[in-house]
């Protein structure tokens, strides 16, 4: 079974490793096919243009011969065809120079037929109505074949060369009777040479281009796949060991892969922080619950042995057990609050709170609960529409923690001052008490979990040492800050700062929250 699983994993890894080959093949094949199509199109365009030029040359010869021979009223024969040709043409047929001194004086270049049939690629044959040759130039005489219509143009392959054949019927301009046929064979030497060279160079260029495209594709694909392999490697390491510190190295690039690598690193950091939170939660709960559980267990053992028969012992044990159970309940609740405070961005990402309303309500409620304390509020520097991005219940919890903390550690002067103000960029909330104060060496530690300046007195007042730790986690989760200034014997001042929320951003967050709430409504409720 293990071998089968191992072979399956190896097969999957082999499949994954072929990603480069597949991508290179696809990219190279796409570019190659596109280049081949482009080359074929270019080849066809050049061939067509060049062939049209050659056809025009052949047609000029046919038109010139037809114009010359159409003046003959009878069937074409050697006796009437040769005299119809110009003197210069007859000299060419005899092997003499096409132009002599007399022709120069008489402008012999005006004879179009000379330039037509002196082309070495042009082979001309004139046939009578009995398909007999009455005139031909060159060593190769184009063969005649019957055709329909007055003219026919066709291409033929001969010895890997393309030859253009043009067949033309000759009608007498005198009586409009068919007198013979003209056949022009254009060897198209330039065309064949051009297309052969073009095909050769296109093949060479295509092979070079394919090699370049494959190499370029490989470099491009490797540039993309290598970071993905690094990400996969890190993911496997973290999967094998969730506590691994392995992270994707910084990519020196500014694209989606760099953004993906950063996102994965942030995700791994968060995942690891959740693991650490879970471990710390379990460890803290185990440590803090050990004492109350031991106390309750001790009382129960004592009652089981002999205390149940003593009403006084029984009453004391029950009260002590209930007190420890109540402390355990508060401890567990505070631990849950602390864990939730570290996951604010998941649970409350778009919440908005009016600072004035919340501060007034909390101060009013606590003043009613603690009538023996003078809890004063100063919010003259806080506009009524001041808002921050925080869940209103958490802002209430923060104020309750700080005010309750000041009440617990107060001395003779039972007064708490709460003030709130705003600057251009932040909102500040200050809670000041006039109690015992905190020594300078303890001020940096009071936000740690379960830290107590005086453990004995803290237990008497019912604290677990988690309130300020919860406060710090909540403030940090909402991108704020919390600090303390204290003098022993004179009291402490806790100051919270939060980013001020602009009206534009507040409207945007409300819109997102409304859409989220709308989408979360169950089926059957009108959205």
Task: Indicate the CATH architecture of the largest domain.
Answer: 2-Layer Sandwich
Name the CATH superfamily classification of the largest domain: Histidine kinase-like ATPase, C-terminal domain
Residues in β-strands, percent = 15-25%
Radius of gyration equals 51 Å
CATH fold type of the largest domain: Heat Shock Protein 90
Based on secondary structure, the structural category is alpha+beta
Q: Which regions contain 5 or more consecutive residues with pLDDT less than 50?
A: 13-17, 103-110, 455-460, 523-527
Mind summarizing the main beta sheet? 5 strands, antiparallel
- Order of strands across the main sheet: 2-1-5-4-3
CATH domain class name of the largest domain: Alpha Beta
β-strand number: 12
Order of helices and strands: HHHHHHEEEEEHHHHEHEEHEEHHHEEH
What integer is the average pLDDT?
80
Catalytic activity: ATP + protein L-histidine = ADP + protein N-phospho-L-histidine
Protein name: Signal transduction histidine-protein kinase ArlS
GO molecular function, one term: phosphorelay sensor kinase activity
Enzyme class: transferase
């Amino acid at each position: 079974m293990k071998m089968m699983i191992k072979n399956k994993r190896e097969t999957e890894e082999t499949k994954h490793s072929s990603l480069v080959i597949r991508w290179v093949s696809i990219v190279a094949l796409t570019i190659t096919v596109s280049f081949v199509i482009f080359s074929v199109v270019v080849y066809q365009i050049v061939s067509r243009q060049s062939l049209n030029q050659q056809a025009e040359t052949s047609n000029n010869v046919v038109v010139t011969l037809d114009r010359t021979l159409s003046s003959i009223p009878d069937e074409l024969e050697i006796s009437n065809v040769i005299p119809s040709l110009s003197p210069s043409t007859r000299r060419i047929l005899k092997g003499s120079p096409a132009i002599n001194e007399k022709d120069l004086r008489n402008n012999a270049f005006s004879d179009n037929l000379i330039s037509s049939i002196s082309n070495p690629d042009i082979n001309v044959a004139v046939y009578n109505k009995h398909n007999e040759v009455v005139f031909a130039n060159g060593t190769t005489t184009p063969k005649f074949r019957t055709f329909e219509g007055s003219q026919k143009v066709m291409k033929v392959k001969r010895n890997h060369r393309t030859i253009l054949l043009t067949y033309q019927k000759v009608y007498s301009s005198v009586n409009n009777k068919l007198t013979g046929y003209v056949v022009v064979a254009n060897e198209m030497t330039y065309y064949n040479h051009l297309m052969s060279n073009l095909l050769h160079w296109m093949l060479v260029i295509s092979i070079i281009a394919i090699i370049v495209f494959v190499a370029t594709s490989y470099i491009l694909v490797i540039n993309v796949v290598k970071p993905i392999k690094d990400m996969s490697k890190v993911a496997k390491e973290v999967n094998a060991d969730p506590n691994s510190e392995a992270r994707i190295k910084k990519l020196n690039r500014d694209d989606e892969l760099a953004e993906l690598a950063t996102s994965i690193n942030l995700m791994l950091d968060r995942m690891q922080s959740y693991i650490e939170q879970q471990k710390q939660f379990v460890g803290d709960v185990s440590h803090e619950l050990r004492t109350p559980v031991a106390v309750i267990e001790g009382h129960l053992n004592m009652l089981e042995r002999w205390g149940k028969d003593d009403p006084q012992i029984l009453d004391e044990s029950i009260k002590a057990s209930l007190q420890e159970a109540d402390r355990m309940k508060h401890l567990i609740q505070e631990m849950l609050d602390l864990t939730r405070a570290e996951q604010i961005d998941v649970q409350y990402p778009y919440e908005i709170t009016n600072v004035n309303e919340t501060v007034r309500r909390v101060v009013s409620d606590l003043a009613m609960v603690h009538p023996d304390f003078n809890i004063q509020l100063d919010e003259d520097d806080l506009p009524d529409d001041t808002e921050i991005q925080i869940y209103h219940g958490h802002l209430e919890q923060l104020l309750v923690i700080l005010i309750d903390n000041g009440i617990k550690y107060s001395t003779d002067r039972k007064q708490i001052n709460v003030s709130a103000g705003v600057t251009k960029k932040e909102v500040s909330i200050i809670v000041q008490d006039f109690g015992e104060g905190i020594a300078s060496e303890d001020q940096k530690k009071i936000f740690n979990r379960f830290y107590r300046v005086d453990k004995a007195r803290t237990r008497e007042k019912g604290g677990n040492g988690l309130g300020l730790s919860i406060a710090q986690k909540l403030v940090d989760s909402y991108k704020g800050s919390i600090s303390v200034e204290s003098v022993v014997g004179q009291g402490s001042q806790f100051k919270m700062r939060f980013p001020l929320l602009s009206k534009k951003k507040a409207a945007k967050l409300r819109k997102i929250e409304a859409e989220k709430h709308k989408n979360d409504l169950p089926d059957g409720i009108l959205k």
